[in-house]
Amino acid sequence: MLDPAEAQPADPAPMQVRRNLAEVFGRHGHTVILMEDDPDRQGEDLIQKFDRLLQSGVTDIVLYWPPRAKMQTTYDELILLCDRLDLLEKRSVRLWALHHSSVATITRDEFKILETGSRSRYLTAVASRLVLCPLEWETKEDLNEQILLLSAEL
Amino acid sequence: MDLLAHKDYLRILQAVQRKPMRFGEIQKELGLNPVQVDRAMKYLRKGLWVVPRVAPSEKGRLLVEYEIGKRGGAFLRSFKVFTDDASQRQAELGADAVAELQSLLQ
Question: Which chain A residue has its CA at the smallest distance from B55's CA?
């Protein structure tokens, strides 16, 4: 969800970008799960659903991280992943962060989160626990290129 | 292709294929200055020739380690085949040209 006060008219909704990502990965032969598209099972709460999906043979998790985003659901999911580090390590699940250049950057040997205030502290804390593979993009063209390259890498 | 035009880029690709490395380790092992490594890593990251990985850390800094990407591995394998083939055609290509190609893989 974008912060309405900061969103630009030309910014595509993150949900739409996630669907585009899924479509590209699907075209390249990957099986993609978007949590919001997977129907809840009877009696299953959201955390149980998260665990079920995570344990269904997931090999990679892709986090789409646009500028000026408020991503409470994503933050919640990252916290859940932090609690499941053993599982991620055991199954060698990789976590890719497809981030805009304004929210994070790599400076020589350091990954720096550029979000402001508590968001930066939160994400730094999460990233220091998870094994994150950051991929930077700046323009829509960059993003499309990174998606294609990542699709070949997975 | 920029990768072929920069010997440093190829050397870094080979180094991280041997083992994942940090920025400083690449610099030290290959005797490059920080500007050279920085320029190379920006290019290699952008093309996903290498994969940056943020290693868990307890000191608050998020340190990055680089490992070879599938694309980088495929490129090195192709380049090796090309160089091996060139070696067999040394008579036509000339010893200097073949030696120059081989030096890129050392």
Answer: A131
ipTM confidence score: 0.83
B20 to chain A, any CB pair closer than 8 A? The answer is no
Confidence of residue B14 (pLDDT cuts 50, 70, 90): very high
CB proximity list for A16: less than 8 A, separation 6 or greater: none
DSSP state of A63: E
Q: How many CB pairs under 8 A join A and B?
A: 70
- Dihedral angle of Cα B78, A153, A103, A122, to the nearest 10 degrees: -130
Q: pTM (2 decimals)?
A: 0.84
Query: Which sign, positive or negative, has the C-alpha torsion A130, B68, B10, B15?
Result: positive
The closest CB to that of B71, out of A108, A113, A152, belongs to A152
